Amino acid sequence: MTCSDNNSKDGHFLGNFLAKLARGFSPSVMDGESCQIGYEGSDGVSIHIENLNKSFGEHHVLKDINLVIKPGETFSIIGPSGTGKSLLLKHIVKLESADSGRILINDHDISESEPPDENRSFRYSMVFQSSALFNSLTVGENVGLWLREKRICGEVRIRRIIHEKLQLVGLAGKEESLTSELSGGMRKRVAIARSLAMNPDLILYDEPTAELDPVTSDELARVINSLKEKVNLTTIIVSHDLNFALYLSDRVAMMHDGEIIAIGTPEEIKKSQNPIVRNFIYTTTKGIKGEGE
Asked: Distance of CA 270 to CAs 78, 103, 161, 250, 276, Å?
């Protein structure tokens, strides 16, 4: 399987990304309900980002990023376009490498080889901005893609996992539908189901409301919010949609010009006196600036 039938830039990233997700799983033919050891478990991970820097030529994009995300936390990174949010996300999933600084997940530096301690090992998954689905595959084939490519489970179990994950995102019974026939919001939910099929300890969303209308964005927010009660994982959301981030997040960080300028709970961010934060809030939430004043 290649990404040749997906014309977006995210399709290229997906091909590289899937190749990184085996976490020690070796290809083998599985029978019936069997799954490889370690697949069923899932726990939220801790993330420590320390003095991370990234430049492209003379353009210094990420500037001394320091961030701590707790296990099981839903954490959003907000800010206008071009501030380095998505680039930071790509560093966390090792699609980009930093010029300096480091990222530790479960106290393991991800730039090093796989951790020898199984307790520090983890799986991660990413929902791309474009959804990065394969239009030549059905919904079910997209959701089961990684499981089949890595031969994680037997076919009977894979079909059951596909059904379970589609049910979680409100798409039960859509296994045989073509992704090309789905609305933008439904495609996003298929992409989430595909990510959940990996049983990740960490899931990352890159601009999940991009190209969605407000009603569909609200539906997607409810789907992601319901997952917090049903799935034990750490969630990172990158978004310029402040309302979406405030609704879902335990904490929020705002980026501006490659730097993190504010971190706090949704209420703390709304009450921030930082003029850059205040201006972003006011222009993106239609008057929320006056709340609490």
From this structure: 13, 28, 39, 13, 12
C-alpha span between 208 and 188 (Å, rounded) = 7
> From CA 179, how far away is CA 168, in angstroms rounded?
18
Q: Kindly list the structural domains of the chain, giving each domain's residue range(s) and its CATH number in brackets, ordered by start.
A: 9-290 (3.40.50.300)
Sign of the CA dihedral 198, 202, 207, 211? positive
E strands present in the chain: 47-56, 59-69, 74-78, 100-105, 108-109, 124-127, 202-206, 234-239, 251-256, 259-264
Q: Which residue has the tokens 């939220």?
A: 44
Decide if pLDDT at 28 tops 90: no
The answer to which of 11-20, 22-31, 115-124, 264-273 has the lowest mean pLDDT is: 22-31
Burial grade of 273 (CB within 10 A; 0-12, 13-18, 19 or more): exposed
Model pLDDT, residue 43: 79
pLDDT tens-place string over residues 197-235: 998 999 999 999 988 898 999 999 999 999 888 888 999
